[in-house]
Amino acid sequence: MSDTNTPAAVPAQQTTTHSVRGSGQGPTQERDVALPPLDAGLEEEREYVGLLYQRLDDLREEKQAQLAKVRRTGAVGTMQNQSERDAFATMYEDRLAQLNAVDDRLVFGRLDLDSGECRYIGRIGLTSEGRQRLMLDWRAPEAGVFYQATAFDRQGVRRRRHLLLKRREVQGLEDEVLDTSVLEESTENHGDGALLAALKARRTGQMGDIVATIQAEQDRIIRADRSGVLVVQGGPGTGKTAVALHRAAYLLYAHRDRLKSAGVLIVGPNSTFMSYIERVLPSLGETGVVMSSLADLYPGVRGVEETDPQVAQIKGRLDWVDIIASAVRARQRNIPEPRIVTVEGVEVTVTPKMIRRGLERARATGKPYNEARTTFVKVVVKEIAEKLERILEKRSAGNGADRSYLVEEVRSSREVRVLLNLCWLPRTPQNLLEDLFSKPKYLAAVAPQLTAQEQRLLQRSPGTAFTVADAPLLDEAAELLGELDESAGREEARQKAAREKDLENARKAVENVTPQMAEMGIEGFLSAEDVAALNADSGPSMSAAERAGVDRTWTYGHVVVDEAQELSPMQWHVLFRRVPLKSVTAVGDIAQGSSPSASTDWREAFAPFIDDRLRIEELTVNYRTPRIMVELAERVAAANGLEVTSLRTVREGDFEPIIERVDAQELIHAAVTGVAAEHERIGEGLVAVIAPARLLESTREGLISAYGQRVGRGAGSMTQDIVAMTAEEAKGLEFDAVVLVEPAELLEEAHGRIGSLYVALTRSTHSLRVLASRDLPAGFSV
Ligand SMILES: Nc1ncnc2c1ncn2[C@@H]1O[C@H](COP(=O)(O)OP(=O)(O)OP(=O)(O)O)[C@@H](O)[C@H]1O
């Protein structure tokens, strides 16, 4: 058995055959299937695709049987035997999950080369039992020409064929003949291009992959080098999100050893967006990535919206690195004058000098605040105990009794504990931030960078929920405070030792199984770290991705950030800490920026974190929005002072945008009827009402009373056929039709920044209806 990703090299027209096992569980039957000739038609391609699915099913069956066998063996034998079994079991499970995920439209392309070689391109690489290459993984270097070859630069390609599948069924072929001499040989040339067919398709509410139709400018970005920061700038609908996700899949393929254990983090603006994109990577056979919205950047706390844009802007500044450091330092303080504590009925005077020695020794450890506190406590307790001992010695005229118990007595004395806490209170990131925002004097003392007015804006009562903009501040505080539990350091050391032991065992196991896996043609599916995680002697076993998702200190091999223009400097600061090699793909559009901290220049945005080794690539074709709507959006942007690069569009569009004037009190009713009118116009599909925040709830209620269950709610709302949201929430999403309510108010609520309205105008793939009771913003009329 072999199913890896080395190049396919099968001459196209000679009658090459592949030997394929028959289906079913019975005895193996061998049958030969010829590779379709260059002028193959639908029937021949169907036969070949049938062969590929046959191979997929066989592999699946094989893995299922192997997994069942390993599981039957049970947890017996030496630690190393168990590790080996676990290694195999995880590998089979991973592989099975991957084989299941790629079932839909397994293969999509065929290349016929000048050399006579024919390559099939699909979601994974497949070879026959006899090690004959059947299909190339789209990410393999040899598959690159499928996306790159053009009539001007053929790169040895005579013909590129798209196989249009619905699930497992070949429904059509589409040929691009790059060498005109092939024209006579080819009888097939089928209708609409694969790209247009994909773009016209109704939206499901979840983003799909674009693997069959990646365009050359996108492919270059997807396969770009992993090192450093790559920014992909592009207008709406240019495929930035799609490219970012396919790049993650590509990097996981090309650097599997490194990235499988370190992991890839994908960051997006909010949870609706994260559920919109969550299926793309699994459909490409990749499951081991961690996805996080900006609200979840600090594990364990889901930030609510920061409603005041000024507050969000203040919290986004890098000044907080210093403010939080001062806030932490300010929580270590000396006593102004000596204090008396009573231990065992004896009064002991604690002097500022004794406390200072404790503070200095603790700071000298260089450990985070809570961990250094252990040293502080140890030093001061010892000093008090020694003083107490001297007093007791004096009283008992030096009878030399054993007084080693005194240290424990001092440590457990309530008065001593109060004094120690007064000087060095154990803190969690949450308490620290809560204190900063609820104690104006504390904030004033540690944040001279903020004006009095800014400090006032930050004030809030204790217990208020943490916001998205607090997440990076919590993270920064956690970094400086360290573990709260004094025993955590010891526990951590114990766990580290246990992990190292597991890792050593796992390395031996992987060494043993690797040759057997290689024999089977499987490489790089499991690292020693994965096996070690399975054997970890504490808690349930977790995959690298699961562990990374809950561990604030996890460092990733690569980070992908979508809607990157919206991130504040503090959010970048936290993200860069998670990727020490600074291997980052950031995709976004400066023109769509709407958050209070949105970047207006990519180089400026990254200057604090990296030197000038920043690569900026641009995408220039809008695949989502028809030309008529793009023109409207660009006109409105320009009329409101926003410079946007004019985009090329792939589709003209079938429907002119409709602009309806309505009375203010009729807006919601008009939105409800507008949805029905849009469904009538476009047929089935997802219609979104994009409304100002003030009208959102009443709009949603109006829609629910008219359409009931059809109206989506929460993160999974996009899978229904009607949704209502603000322009901010619509960022990154797309719909078949959009009903846009009161554009003047959208502009106003973004404080005159056009970004949100520009976003709203570019969300639709087919049709747009604008409802306005007030004057329309500039640019709406020609
Ligand atoms: N090469 C392609 N083949 C098929 N569909 C594509 C291709 N490129 C982009 N698309 C489709 O175009 C639409 C827009 O893509 P995407 O959401 O990635 O754009 P974007 O640049 O992130 O947009 P925005 O900035 O407006 O959120 C999606 O439906 C995507 O699947």
UniProtKB/TrEMBL annotation:
Keyword Manganese: no
Lineage: Bacteria, Bacillati, Actinomycetota, Actinomycetes, Micrococcales
Protein name stated in the entry: AAA family ATPase
PROSITE patterns named in the record: UVRD_HELICASE_ATP_BIND
Disordered as annotated region, ranges: 1-37
Biased composition (Polar residues): 18-28
Domain UvrD-like helicase ATP-binding, first and last residues per copy: 213-626
Keywords: ATP-binding, Helicase, Hydrolase, Nucleotide-binding
Residue numbers binding ATP: 234-241
Biased composition (Low complexity): 1-17
Pfam families, per the entry: UvrD-helicase, UvrD_C_2
